[in-house]
Amino acid sequence: MATHEQQHPPAIESPNPGLFEHILTHYRGLFAVLVLLPVSLVYGAYAALRNRIVFQLRSAPTQHAAKVQNVVRQIEAWKADGAKQRLCTARSGWETMSELVPSYKLTHRKIDVGLYDILEIDGQNRTVRVEPLVTMGQLTRTLLPLGWTLPVVPELDDLTVGGLIMGFGVESSSHKYGLFQSICIAYEIVTADGQILHCSAVENAELFHAIPWSHGTLGFLVSATLKLIPARRYVRLHYQPVRGLDELVAAFEEASRAPEAHDFVEGLVYDRDSAVIMRGTLTDEIAPDGRVNAIGRWYQPWFYRHVQRFLARDTEGVEYVPLRQYYHRHTRSYFWTMEEIIPFGDHPVFRWLLGWTLPPRVSLLKYTETETTRRLRERLHVIQDLLMPMATLKASIEYLDEHYGIYPLWLSPMAIYADARHTGFVQPCPRGDGSHDELYVDVGVYGSSYRPGFDNRRALPQLESFVIDQHGYQALYATTMLSRDAFRRMFDHTAYDRLRAQLPLCTQAFDEVYDKVSTKGRVSPVEMRKIEKHAKGPS
User: Fold this and answer.
1) H helical segments located in 19-133
2) Cα 235 from chain centroid?
3) 501-521 per-position pLDDT tens digit
4) CA–CA separation, 3 vs 115, rounded Å?
5) What is the pLDDT of residues 86-142, one digit of tens each?
6) Cβ-based burial of 55 (10 A; exposed 0-12, middle 13-18, buried ≥19)
7) Cα–Cα distance list, 127 to 42, 121, 158, 231, 456 (Å)
8) CA nearest to 95, candidates 469, 380, 477
C-alpha cells in the first residue's frame, strides 16, 4: 500500500532573494505557525463575535433593505458618471478561495456589497435566507443548535454562500441533493441598471437557473433563500477499504446510486488500486456497532490520515461522528494540502499544543507567496476539482495516475439536474441512447507532483482537453488554461448569452465569466503584489 509521505520539491531559488523571501520560502512552516496562525485566530474571533451579536440582536433583517439600496445607489452613480467602467464587488480579491488573485478589480469600478448576515430562519417552511458573504462555518454554528442544517454543506468553514452559488459547491451529500445551487430556492439580485429582481423557479425562472456559475456577470447577488432539513446529532460513518481499480469504481458507484440508503458518500483514493469508501447516515442514536469519534477535536489526527488506518489494517469499521465535525472534517488540514505548508502539522505534539490554531486563512497564505514558491507552484502544484460523469470514473483515475501521480484523490458523487428549459452552464451527461445520466463525481486533485519532468503548465491543457472529451467540467475557482472557444465547448452558454443581451447594461457593466476566471482576469499573488505596489507609486 502506498503511503502519503512528505516529499521535498526540487531546489528552485530566486536569483537574488531577500532575507524575507528566503524565510518565507525555506521556513514557511515556522512562519505560518509564528505569524499566520495568530493573525488568522484574531480575525476569526472578531468575525465570529460580530456575527453572533448581529444575529442575537436580530438587526440584520431591518438593515438588509438599506444595504441593498446602498448597492442600488452606487450603480445609479455609475450610470450618472457615464457607465464607463466595468463593475465588480469591492471585496478584496485576496479573500477568494482560488490560489490566484483577480487582477480585474484594479481596473473595474468597485461596488460595496458588504452583506454578511443570516437574515431569517423559517422553520415552518424549512428555509433560511442569507446574505452572500455568510460562510459555511457561520451557518453550521447557527443552525445546528436550532435543530436545522443545509442539505449540502461544502467542506471548508470560510466558503461563502455567494461563492458557492456564483461559482460551484459540492459535498458528500450531493449525490442525494445535487450541487449547492440545487438547494437554493430563490435569489435576490441587483442588475446593472439598478433593478432589484427576485428570482425563483416561477419568477424570472430563466435568470434563476442561469445565476449559478455566472461569477457575478449577470448582476450582484444580495440574498439567497436555501432549503433546510432537520439536523441529527451524529453521522454514522462506515469505512470500507477496497483493493483494485475495478472494485474501487464499482463500490463507489454502487454507494453513490443509493441516495435513499446513504446520506453521505465519499472516497479517498490513496493510490491507483487502493481506496477507502465511506457511507454516512444521519442519526441521533449510537448503536453497539461503533463508537463516537470526535474527529474535529484539535488533538485528533488529520482526517485523511485517520481514514488511511482502515486501509492499512484492511478492515471495515463504523464510527459515530458529531455532525458539525463531520461537515468540517477536512478543514484543519485543508484536505491534505496543509502538509506542504506545515509539514509537522499532524505530529502528535503539534496537534496537542497548537492544533486548535489551524488552519491559517487562505488570503494570508496567498499573500506570503514568494517568487520561488510561485515558480514551484506553477510547475508542480495542482489544485483542481474535475466534475466527471460517473461512467468515466475509471478512465479519470487512470489518466490522473499516468499523467500526475498525485494522491490522495478526493471522490465526491453529485447529481447535476436539468431544469425544464435546460438552462445553465452545466447539464446532465448525454448517453448514447438519447437519455441522460445525472450522476457525476467530483475528482479532487490537490497537491504537488514530483515525477521527473512534470510541469503542470504543459499537463493542465492536456487534462482540460481530456475533461472536455469526457463531457466533464472544471471547477472555476481553480487555475484554467482553456481558450475562450474551449471554455465555451465545456460550458453551455446558450441561455447565458441570451440573458446578457436582454438585461439592460449587462454587457456594458460586467465581463463574461471567461474574462474573470481565465488568465485574462487572474494573476499570481506575487504578480498582484507587484501590480498593487506599482499602482500606489513611490512611497
Assistant:
1) 19-26, 28-31, 37-57, 60-80
2) 22
3) 999 999 999 999 999 999 889
4) 44
5) 999 998 888 888 888 999 999 999 999 989 899 999 999 999 999 999 999 889 999
6) middle
7) 32, 6, 21, 13, 43
8) 477
**Closest to 228 measured CA to CA, from 195, 183, 192, 190:** 183
How far apart are alpha carbons 430 and 33 in whole angstroms?
Answer: 49
Distances (CA, A) of 186 to 133, 149, 223, 315: 16, 18, 8, 45
Distances (CA, A) of 90 to 93, 95, 109, 220, 271: 8, 11, 8, 11, 43
- Which of 393, 176, 159, 100 lies closest to 168 in space, CA to CA? 159
Helix (H, G, I), strand (E, B) or coil at 23: helix
| 454 membership: H or E segment, kind and range | none
- Give strand pairing partners of 317: 239
Identify whether the C-beta of residue 409 lies closer than 8 Å to the C-beta of residue 445: yes
Where does 167-269 have alpha helices with state H? 174-177, 205-210, 245-256
Region for residue 520 given its phi and psi (left: phi exceeds 0; alpha: psi -120 to 50; beta: otherwise):
alpha
Sort strands 87-89 and 109-111 into parallel, antiparallel or unpaired: parallel
How far apart, in whole angstroms, are the C-alpha atoms of residue 377 and residue 405?
Answer: 16
- Backbone torsions φ then ψ of 248, nearest 5 degrees: -60, -50
Instruction: In whole angstroms, give the CA distance from residue 381 to residue 362.
Output: 16
How many C-beta atoms lie closer than 10 Å to residue 5's C-beta? 6
